[in-house]
Amino acid sequence: MHSVRATPGEGPLFAQVQALIIQRMVDGIWTPGERLPSEFALAEEFNVSQGTVRKAFDALVHENLLIRHQGRGTFIAAHSAKRELYRFFHLVSKDGVTPPPQTSRLISFERRKCSAEESRRLKISKSAHVVNIQRVRSMNKAPVIIENIVVPDALITGLGEDNEIPNELYQLYEQSYGVTIHKAIEHLHARATTRSEACHLSLIEGAPLLEIDRLAFTLDGTPVEWRVSRCDTSAHSYLSELF
Amino acid sequence: MHSVRATPGEGPLFAQVQALIIQRMVDGIWTPGERLPSEFALAEEFNVSQGTVRKAFDALVHENLLIRHQGRGTFIAAHSAKRELYRFFHLVSKDGVTPPPQTSRLISFERRKCSAEESRRLKISKSAHVVNIQRVRSMNKAPVIIENIVVPDALITGLGEDNEIPNELYQLYEQSYGVTIHKAIEHLHARATTRSEACHLSLIEGAPLLEIDRLAFTLDGTPVEWRVSRCDTSAHSYLSELF
DNA sequence: GAGTGGTCTAGACCACAGA
DNA sequence: CTGTGGTCTAGACCACTCT
């Protein structure tokens, strides 16, 4: 069969195996939560040794793309509320380190043509449409974050029409639209609260706010969501661990 | 010799090898920049196979503790200006992503008894002494950050007496005092500029500032430095990548 | 018990650096 | 040329899960 070796591709075998696995995820052949064939089965299919498949798996596990369970098998990683909390939500309460439970209140929801900036950030055509969600997130019943979320309409057709908008959007993208968020880049600034923000967050106008400007990407590097969160950091802080 | 197997310790062999290697770094037997024995040499010493040593090395390379050079050997990772920039300095210019060159201006330097808060954060005795540095960092000649740095005096005796205080302190800690910063935890807040900060940063009082509260740790988890940086984020942003 | 991943070993060959 | 890490293979045994 020589599925891998017949097309030598580039570089080490394990990297080629890795790329093939990722490609199957991108193509939707393997979906989040699904169990992969065993290491030996894949080794036979790709005509490499089991150790080579293992090495490819190892790398993908480190990238949070696969999850192994001894005795059960290897699975495509899926977003879960718990996982999401730690990976993509870095605001922690000031004293304890525990991320408090959250609720969201929708402020506005609209489907409209994208702005020039949105077109640039999301790499979509200037005439494309987007879904724009604004909401306030509360922790322990106190409003803490005001979020402005922009997603290309094409990626999530029908969102908000027949279904509720859940707290954890990334699970929704994944489960309902087959869009898996894999990476995000955040730019943080300190900004003064505007009048309308002050109203939503029970702050005074001009108070310092932490602004988190996040662009989220799928597996193949396509930007999927642009989210700007403005956070009241008087009782919380953004946690960043450097290794 | 069965150096590893004779004392079965706990868990997998490669993890024990890993721990032994880390211990030698903590003990100063192997110092930053130094070349380690080859995989085969260590395998013989520890009485394991070369593959097991390799697996231990792999993990340590992922943790930024070792660096491999094909054909040359494996080395203890050392802080370099370039490495430091990417690992522990996340402020980037707003437009380009390139971290601009920096200069520092010393505001104050003193050796004194630690405060209660400093004792708590640095886990040192309430009667211990600390070195306290305050300085302003500029990027492209404009003042951007005001830093307040507190280090236990015991760890860096003599600092600032006979030598200059360099821009990159972590290199100094490592090279002059054998203290290697391996991990840091940062808590970010938005804060209003105080009068004295406003003066140093050429801002108006009350303008929003990004405060970075960082605790830095050595290999064995000892806190070594407490640093609070207050940043003007009008032309820069704190970059955080989530995977 | 059968199947899976987890660990460990042993040996082969390659690519690179340095004397 | 020698020694190093980089890759790949093959096979053994263990620990865990499920039926």
Give short descriptive properties of this protein.
243 residues; 2 domains; six-stranded antiparallel β-sheet; Arc Repressor Mutant, subunit A; Chorismate lyase; alpha+beta; DNA-binding; two-stranded antiparallel sheet; 10 strands; 27% helix; homodimer
Number of helices of chain A: 7
Beta-strand share of residues of chain A: 25-35%
- pLDDT averaged over residues of chain A: 92
CATH architecture classification of the largest domain in chain A = 3-Layer(aba) Sandwich
In which order are the strands of the major sheet of chain A placed? 4-5-6-9-8-7
The residue ranges of chain A in which pLDDT falls below 50 over 5 or more consecutive positions are: none
CATH topology of the largest domain in chain A: Chorismate lyase
Instruction: Categorize the overall geometry of chain A.
Output: globular
- How much helix, percentage-wise, in residues of chain A? 25-40%
CATH class of the largest domain in chain A: Alpha Beta
| String of helices and strands of chain A | HHHEEHEEHEEHEHEEE
Largest interface: A-B, 33 and 33 residues
CATH superfamily of the largest domain in chain A: Chorismate lyase-like
Supply Rg of chain A: 21 Å
* Oligomeric form: homodimer
Tally of discrete structural domains of chain A: 2
Number of strands of chain A: 10
Q: How many angstroms does the end-to-end distance of chain A come to?
A: 43 Å
Secondary-structure-derived class of chain A:
alpha+beta
Characterize the largest beta sheet of chain A: strand count, sense, and whether it forms a barrel.
6 strands, antiparallel
